[in-house]
Amino acid sequence: MGFIFDGLLKGFFLLVNGDAEVYSIVRLSLFVSVFATAVSVTIGVPLGSLVAIKKFPFKKIVISLVNTGMGLPPVVVGLAAMLLLSRNGPLGFLGWLYTPTGMVLAQVIIATPVITGLSLSAMQSLDRRFYLQMLTLGAGQWQALWVCLKELKLSILAAVIAGFGSIISEVGAVMIVGGNIRHQTRVLTTATVLETQMGNFDGAIALGLILLGLTFLINMALTFIQQQKARAE
Amino acid sequence: MIKLKDLNFRLPSGFALDIASLDVGEGEIFAIIGPNGAGKTTLLNILALLEEAKPGALEIAGRNALPPSGRTGLRRSMSYLFSRPYLVNDTVRNNIALPLKFRGERDSGQVAEMLEVFKITYLRDRSATQLSQGERHRVSLARAFVTRPRLVLLDEPFSSLDARVKETIICDLGRITRAAKTTVVLVTQDQEEALALADVLAVIKDGRLLQRGSPQELFSRPVSKEVADFVGVETLLGGEITAKSGNLCSVRVDGNMLEAVSGCAAGDSVLLCVRPEAVSVSRTAQADSMRNHFRGRITSVEPWRLEHRLSIDCGFNLIAAVTKRSLDDLGLKPGDEVFASFKATAAHLIKR
Predict the structure, then answer these.
(1) Measured torsion, CA atoms of residues B98, B101, B103, B107, in degrees rounded to the nearest 10
(2) Which of chain A's termini has less CB crowding within 10 Å, N or C?
C-alpha cells in the first residue's frame, strides 16, 4: 500500500514544485483535448441539429450511423487516422503524423459523433413545431436552429461535457497518431502508460491523479455553468 | 391575397388534400372548419410554406409559391400561430421583439404598441415561463402582429383557453385585424369561434373542400348532407317534392307534407334541412305566419351548451332548440304533447 501513498505524494510535489516536463504534458493534454472539443462542437452541434430537424431519405440509417460512431473504439480511430496521415496515406501530404495536430484530428473523430448524437437527441426532444414556429416568425433556417439550441442549452452543454470526457481520458488514438514523443506529443494518458510500462508506478499514479484532477475541474466548471442556467430557468 | 389552384398534396401517411380552387381576398377573415383529420392544419402548413405545394398551385400576394431559397422572404410577409403558443425562454418583451430581430429590424416602438394593443403591458419584463395559458396566448398574438403582417394564419389558436378568456381574445383579435385590414385564415373545429370572426367560411372534410360562402349561407344553406351535419343542422329528412308554386315547394316526408322555399323542381328527391333554432315550440297551436305546423310528442330533452335540445316525434323526428328559461316556463318534459312550427324559408332543400 505504501507505493500508492508514495504516488499520491509524488504527484502533489510534481505539481507544487512546478516540474517543467509535467507542466508541458498538462498543457499539451489540455490544448489537444480542448481544441478537439471545440472543433467537434462546431461540427457536431449543427450537424446533429440538422439531422434531427430535417426530413430526408434514409434518416434512420444516418441516425444509426451517428449512434454507432458514439461508441467508436479509440484504438481503431487511432489506426485509421495513422493510415490516413502516414506518408503514403491520402492525407500524408499534410505532415500531421506524430504531431499535436494529428492528435487533434484523431480526437475530433472520436468526439464529433458523441456531440452529434447527443445534440441530435436533444433536438429531437424539442417539439418540431417550435422550430417551425420560428420559421413562420420570419427566421431563416440558421436563425431558427440557433433559437432552438438556446432553448436546449442545458442538453447541449451536457453533450459538450460528454464529448470532452470521451477524449481527455482516451489513450489509444493519441498514442498511435502522436507516438508519445517526449516534449512533442506526450500527453497525460500516454505518459501514464509509459510510466506504468517502465514499472515506475508512483510516477504513473501521480500523472493519473493529475489527469483525474484536471478532468474533474473542467467538468465541474461546465457543470457549474449548466446548473446555473438550470436555476435561472 | 391567396389563390390556391389544383392543389393535390399527399402526406407520407397517405392522406391526400385535393382542392380545386380556393381564393382568400385581401383583408378578409376566412375561417376553415371541419372535423379532426380533415386536412385543415395541412392546408395551413401549405399556406405557410411549411409543406411543399406543386409549383404554380399557390399564389400569395400576387407571388408564386417560391422555391425553398425564396421562402423566408415570403414568410416574412405573414405570421402563423399554432394552437400551442411556442414562446422562447426569455422575457415577454424579447419574445414579442423576436420577429423584428429575425428581420434585422430595430424596435421603434412596435413592441410597446403590441403590449398595449393586447393589454399585456404589465407582463413586459416577466419571463415567459411564468405566464398563464391565456397570457401565453396573448403574448403569442402580440408577437404575430408586431411586424404588421399582411396575412395571419391561425391554427385553432383558442382551443386550450377557457370560455371567458377565449371570448375577450376573439373580440380583441377581430377588432385589431379589421382595423389593420389584415387578411386572416383561421382553422377551427369550433363553429361559434368561426361565426364570431369570419367574413367567409369554408368546410373541409377528408381533404376536400365541401363548401365555401358567407357564414349565413353555410349555416342556413348547406350544399350537402356532410356540410349540414357539420354546421349543426340536426333535422335532416329525406323526401320528395310533390308540387311547386313559385319558389314554394311542397315536400312529402314519411307521409307528412312540409313546405320549403327552394329552387328545386317538382319530382326531385330531396333532403330537407331545418336548424334547431329555427323551430318554435309551444303548448298550444299558434296562429302565425309560419307555414309548417305540427303536433308532436317530446321523446327526449338533452342539455346542449346553454340551451336544451328537444326531440319531437311529429310523424318524423324534428329537433328544436329551446332556452333553459323556456323549458322551465313551459314545463317541457319527455312524453308531453307540443306544437312545433317553422317557416318555409327556414327549411332548406338539398337535391339528392
Answers:
(1) 100
(2) N
Average pLDDT estimate for A53-81: 93
- Three-class SS state of A38: helix
Domain edge (last residue) among B223, B245, B264: B223
Is there a contact between B82 and A129 if contact means CB atoms under 8 Å apart?
Answer: yes
Contact present, A142 and A45 (Cβ < 8 Å): no
CATH number at residue B277: 2.40.50.100
In the predicted model, is pLDDT for residue A65 greater than 90?
A: yes
- Substitution target from B49, B88, B95, B150 for chain A, most A beta carbons within 10 A: B88
- Give the total number of structural domains in chain B: 2
Do B129 and A127 lie within an 8 Å CB cutoff? no
Total domains in chain A come to: 1
- Give the list of residues 6+ apart from residue A96 with CB closer than 8 angstroms, or none: A85, A102, A105
Residues of A in contact with B80 (CB under 8 A): 133, 136-137
Q: Residue B307: what pLDDT?
A: 86
Q: Which residues of chain B have pLDDT under 70?
A: 55-56, 65-69
Residue B258: give the domain boundaries. 233-351
Kindly determine whether residue A132 and residue B129, on different chains, have CB atoms separated by under 8 Å.
no
pLDDT of residue A114: 96
Residues forming beta bridges with residue B223, ordered by sequence position: none
Q: Which residues of A touch B98 (CB under 8 A)?
A: 134, 137, 147
Taking all residues of chain A, what is their mean pLDDT, rounded to a whole number?
A: 90
pLDDT at position A132 is 94
Distance from C-alpha of A40 to C-alpha of B184, rounded to nearest angstrom: 45
Please list, in sequence order, all residues whose beta carbon lies within 8 angstroms of the beta carbon of residue B202, skipping any fewer than 6 positions away. Answer: B22, B30, B31, B32, B33, B209, B211, B212
C-alpha cell at A49: 441539429
Strands (E), B113-247: 151-155, 183-188, 200-205, 208-213, 235-245
pTM (predicted TM-score): 0.79
Comparing CA positions, the residue from B148, B103, B150 lying closest to residue B2 is B150
User: What range does the domain containing A226 cover?
Assistant: 2-232
Question: What distance in Å separates residue A209's CA from the closest CA in chain B?
Answer: 40
